[in-house]
């Protein structure tokens, strides 16, 4: 079984942001998976990776209940298919808030509501009710005394920004002014922020080689290769900053100069079809790790240096049932089985490994266990437990030794690490135990050793670049 690990990141750090007290990196959680982990498994993964900010594309009750008492900050969403109802009726909006917000707080830490998703570009027939929907949802929060803790906004595609380079010349598509102006006024009045989806991957792909790959990936550029805004003389060394500043300038064009921006979606696909040669594991690694460093270093943008733009990575899981090209299915940090596509650990207090004292633990079968109980536990791990046991098949690296103890140990350890070494995940009705003895042999590498080696490798690599 081939596993690839790049850099995962995640959580709040102590940097100042105009859109929140702290700058942060969060993750989006999509659900277009043929084998979607249950909410308890999702939250176990979030906790294991210390992910403190998530965005849901709906307000799923089971997920919100699973997130209760976790401390994780949650942005929930009014899906586009519910937008018309919410935007046409104050009562419908009030019922939506009562059912999806008031019923869950304070146990579940809901901090924002995204009303619709890219409505102007994907559901233009609902645009006339978008501002009403924002106002109705906010009014319901006011009535529940929740408006101070929960912000209301709506995510926009960056494609609504026209003439985006140089950024100082950018403006919103003027056909949407009847929506954008009152929407921005609402955000300003309520102290909310503009939600923007920024995808340098698509900007690069659609540029016909005008945009250099290094510029899209945050790779260092020599000064003579940086893009310069001829009006402001500001230098841009990455697409992300240029798009964010274009949004700032577009808002200023409409006389709104004090509305912060939160990037609700960004990322890079790790796999693509023949027409997508730059959707690669290495590029996804480079983009996301450089993005994280950029945001968490409080770099800001050329227009607003030092003001970090809090950002959500798209996305937690690869969504294998998403329609479209292969890249659409491969934006995730993890596969559905919980194995990482790329991973890096940060903490809120600095740059240290998460779980660094337990990376060399293994979950293995007890030698004196009843063979029938071991077999039943092995069958469960490889079945309902969703462990990939293909390495145990004949001819594969972990087939030998061909006995139930060896096979069960491999499956138990895979499940244990898939669940983030959470308490209770190495039990299997009493036939498993945690050990510090590495059971890997020859080319059969157990999850415990693999994760420890890769985390150590990338941590050392990080230290080389951050002495």
Task: Give an overview in words.
This protein is α/β, with parallel strands linked by helices. The protein folds into 2 domains: 25-329, Glycosidases (TIM Barrel), CATH 3.20.20; 362-449, no CATH class. It has helices at 39-48, 61-66, 80-88, 90-102, 119-122, 130-143, 177-190, 200-205, 213-216, 239-253, 281-296, 371-382, 404-418, 447-465; strands at 25-29, 53-56, 73-78, 109-115, 151-153, 155-157, 161-162, 171-172, 194-197, 227-228, 235-236, 261-266, 311-313, 362-365, 432-435. The strands form 4 sheets. Strands 5-4-3-2-1-13-12-9-6 form a 9-stranded parallel β-sheet. A two-stranded antiparallel sheet has the order 7-8. The protein is globular, with a radius of gyration of 24 Å.
What is the name of the CATH class of the largest domain? Alpha Beta
User: Whole-Å distance between the termini?
Assistant: 34 Å
> Quick one: biggest sheet?
9 strands, parallel
Strand content: 5-15%
Q: What count of helical segments does DSSP give?
A: 14
Sequence stretches where pLDDT stays below 50 over 5 or more residues = 1-21, 344-359, 453-467
CATH topology of the largest domain: TIM Barrel
Could you say what the CATH architecture of the largest domain is?
A: Alpha-Beta Barrel
What is the H/E string? Answer: EHEHEHHEHHEEEEHEHHEEHEHEEHHEH
Corresponding CATH superfamily of the largest domain = Glycosidases
Gross geometry? globular
Helicity, in percent? 25-40%
Query: What is the domain tally?
Result: 2
Rg from Cα = 24 Å
Mean model confidence by pLDDT: 86
Adjacency order of strands in the biggest sheet: 5-4-3-2-1-13-12-9-6
Output the structural class.
alpha/beta
Counting DSSP E segments of at least 2 residues, the number of strands comes to 15
